[in-house]
Amino acid sequence: MIKRFIAGAVCPRCGEMDRLVTYVKDGGTFRECVNCDFEEKQLAQVAMKELDTRVNHAEAPVEADAQPITFIPPKKK
Length: 77
Prior knowledge:
four-stranded antiparallel β-sheet
């Protein structure tokens, strides 16, 4: 059984941050606190979509009618 910490999560029982872990056991997803005796089975199983990052996202297509812009520096006084 692999337990993974939930970054930034606060335990609802003891109020400590970064003490909750999540794991799968007997076909259910559970979370528990390593600081106190809190344990809870997740009732809703939500499929999470992977977040887009600069590594895994596809480049946006370049529009055919796009024109480059030339910036002119301001005149010095």
